[in-house]
Write a structure and sequence with these properties.
The chain is mostly helical and about 700 residues long. The protein is built from 26 helices and seven strands. The chain starts with about 25 loop residues before the first helix and ends in an 8-residue tail after the last helix. It catalyses: Hydrolysis of oligopeptides, with broad specificity. Gly or Ala commonly occur as P1 or P1' residues, but more distant residues are also important, as is shown by the fact that Z-Gly-Pro-Gly-|-Gly-Pro-Ala is cleaved, but not Z-(Gly)(5).
């Protein structure tokens, strides 16, 4: 059996993980053997450690890296190719992995060696990146419970183990609940309004569920809660009952029966608070902010500033929507509610700007969008991105593999891209993650540094029949967003592996390059280079481009409030909420929503039960980061506006500067300093409010 050590794939020395061959049965024996090896290496390091780079940081990086690469590959497969066997294998070995990480994070010899470096006479001679590594290692060790007395440390470790388990369960419940919802529709009149792409997807899903003769024209169709399916119902289905049913299913996702996440959330919040108290903090948000740019007070202040700027605009949005639906003779005009707003917003947008998301799709075919994106990267940052399919094993035939080359034609990085939705095995949403980071210590074959590798994952509409994947404008923005994250990982010039690429960057600054890239979707030359009709090749008509631009700030107040609700709720739950107290998590949501939702929330709103970002992802007490980084990214983009977006020479010069600062420096320099180096001053929220049309015009 190939689970035995000798030929276990996970123990082989690889640069590109064998994604096509890793199976569930490799996981437990492979990770167990690796942990065993790393335990021995840790013991050896602890006994011979000296406060110097070669005797402390280099062996430590090698140790951490091996585990991150192997665990990263296994966990990535769980996200894109989930199956019960893989789940069980990960669940079984996870406690061992957490135990090892706690042991490493609480190693006194290593901690003391880092402190000795900081207190040594040679401290001032260290590079800024090395100083950041030392300071970060000391801070993280304290947050890992290194200073706790034995009994308290045992309690801390138990909490950590339990939190990892609960987060896994939370995510599995969300995936399973999403998978479980299927609505079979056989009557065409029930899905009136749904565009051809959605009917094609519905029929394709039906075929995969055993309805062999399903066609886009005659059905049957299967509606799921996966984004492409869910959004097309919310935006286009004339059938209000269908919208209501699908909306409520999504709103109450993972909130009942055996997939109920409610108890898990309370447990998570309770344990996070306990952990914070053990470490000497008042609440978990303070623990979270210890490694971020913001403080709790600063994050709350920004959210309130943006909320105040968005509220009146959102109220106006709602009044306009009610009036419009009334003018259209809508029966529900006097009673517009949550499952109506997306539908009527879409109709209003069509009438106001004569833009229809579905009519735009033929202009955004996946291959063209990628070409345009890569041309933009070449123009701004001087890199060439080439298809390199076949060079690295992939987990699905739809996955693309690319090589990034510098201006001299030498490879500097690689990345995978998994674009399409696969509801039966792949989690929703979009993300970028590292496969390996750039590193001098981990270099191979005499190269000066190991080259970074990333993967990008999206969930857009798959190709239907012989048509390519035709994207909505929002899906185009998502690809640009994730590519921004990838660029920061791939174009790093930092050779210290522990702070290369996206590593070591304060969490509330990581969204800067991703949100920055979204701005280019509205840049005329960029958009026109992408938007070519997939059949005729004709460019997007000029008047439609102007309308897209005008529609950019459409309902900006409402969209802004939606993010502010999530961010404020996240902070409130991690600062003031008392688990098991008089208020439930849903009471807190209802209270926050009074100030952040123009239509009062429904009593049955269980949105929190599917809020993976904060309960199964890295955004706990950090969801505000999207807004924080949006301020940074809008301000960074305004440097290009100031230079003149039509002045190609100025754009290239500014792009070069952006690459050399924001994209190159990684976690090797404090993000505020990096920003100032690029922009010449500290960030201001003005550009963001201006881009969103929310800046009160001063007369």
């Amino acid at each position: 059996m190939s689970g035995i050590d000798g030929d276990n794939l996970l123990l082989k020395d690889f640069y590109f993980p064998p994604f096509d061959s890793i199976q569930a049965h490799h996981v437990r024996p492979g990770v167990a053997a690796l942990l065993n090896k790393l335990e021995n290496e840790l013991a050896e390091l602890e006994s011979s450690v000296e406060p110097s780079w070669p005797k402390l940081v280099e062996p430590l990086e090698k140790l951490v890296d091996r585990l991150e690469v192997v665990w990263g590959a296994v966990n990535h497969l769980k996200a894109v190719k989930d199956n019960p066997q893989l789940r069980t294998a990960i669940e079984e070995i996870q406690p061992e992995k957490v135990k090892f990480e706690l042991k490493l994070g609480q190693s006194l010899p290593i901690y003391n060696a880092f402190k000795a470096i900081k207190e040594s006479s040679s401290w001032d001679t260290l590079s800024e990146a090395r100083k950041r590594i030392v300071e970060s290692q000391i801070k993280v060790a304290v947050l890992n419970g290194i200073s706790l007395e034995d009994e308290k440390r045992d309690q801390f470790n138990k909490i950590e183990q339990e939190l990892v388990k609960l987060s896994e369960k939370f995510e599995e419940h969300v995936l399973d609940a999403t998978k479980k919802f299927e609505k079979l529709i056989t009557e065409k009149k029930e899905i009136e309004g749904l565009p051809a792409t959605a009917l094609g997807l519905g029929a394709q899903t039906a075929v995969s569920k055993g309805h062999k003769n399903a066609t886009a024209e005659n059905g049957p169709w299967v509606i799921t809660l996966d984004d492409p399916s869910y959004m097309s119902v919310m935006q286009h289905a004339k059938n209000r009952d269908l919208r209501k049913e699908v909306y409520l299913a999504r709103l109450t996702l993972a909130s009942s029966g055996e997939l109920d996440n409610m108890g898990i959330i309370d447990q998570i919040l309770k344990l996070r608070l306990e952990k914070a108290k053990l470490l000497g903090y008042n609440n978990y948000a303070e623990v979270s902010m210890a490694t971020k740019m913001a403080t709790v007070a600063k994050a709350e202040e920004l959210l309130e500033k943006l909320r105040a700027a968005s509220w009146d605009a959102a109220v106006k949005d709602m009044e306009e929507l009610k009036q419009f639906s009334k003018d259209q003779g809508a029966l529900e005009a006097d009673d517009l509610t949550h499952w109506d707003t997306t539908f009527w917003s879409e109709r209003l947008r069509e009438s106001k700007y004569e833009i229809n998301e579905e009519q735009l799709r033929p202009y955004f075919s996946f291959p063209k969008v990628m070409d345009g994106l890569f041309n933009l990267a070449k123009m701004l940052f001087g890199v060439a991105i080439e298809a390199a399919d076949g060079l690295a094993p992939v987990w699905n035939n739809d996955v693309k593999f690319y090589c990034v080359k510098d201006s001299s034609g030498s490879p500097i990085a690689y990345f995978y891209f998994d674009p399409y939705s696969r509801p039966s095995e792949k989690r929703g949403g979009a993300w970028m993650d590292e496969v390996v980071a750039r590193s001098r210590v981990m270099s191979r074959d005499g190269a000066p540094a190991r080259l970074p590798v990333a993967h990008m994952v999206c969930n857009q509409m798959p190709p239907v029949g012989d048509k390519p994947s035709l994207m909505t404008f929002e899906e185009v923005e998502t690809v640009f967003h994730e590519f921004g994250h990838a660029l920061q990982h791939l174009l790093t010039k930092e050779d210290e592996g522990l702070v290369a690429g996206v590593r070591g960057i304060e969490w509330d600054a990581v969204e800067l390059p991703s949100q920055f890239m979204e701005n280019w979707c509205y840049h005329r030359d960029t958009l026109m280079s992408i938007a070519k009709h997939y059949e005729t090749g004709e460019s997007l008509p000029e008047d439609i481009y102007s309308k897209l631009l005008a529609a950019r700030t459409f309902r900006a107040g409402s969209y802004s409030l939606r993010q502010i609700r999530s961010a404020s709720l996240d902070l409130e739950l991690h600062t003031k909420y008392v688990p098991g107290g008089s208020e439930s998590i849903f009471d807190v949501d209802q209270r926050i929503s009074q100030k952040t939702q123009v239509i009062p929330p429904l009593p049955e709103d269980r949105f929190l039960c599917g809020f993976s970002h904060i309960f199964a992802g890295p955004y706990a007490a950090g969801y505000y980061s999207y807004k924080w980084a949006e301020v940074l990214s809008a301000d960074a983009f305004s440097a290009f506006e100031d230079a003149g977006l039509d002045d190609i020479k100025a754009v290239k010069e500014t792009g070069k500067k952006f690459r050399e600062t924001i994209l190159a420096l990684g976690g090797g320099k404090a993000p505020l300093d990096v920003f100032v180096e690029f922009r010449g001053r500290e960030p201001s929220p003005e550009s963001l409010l201006r881009h969103n049309g929310l800046l009160a015009v001063s007369v």
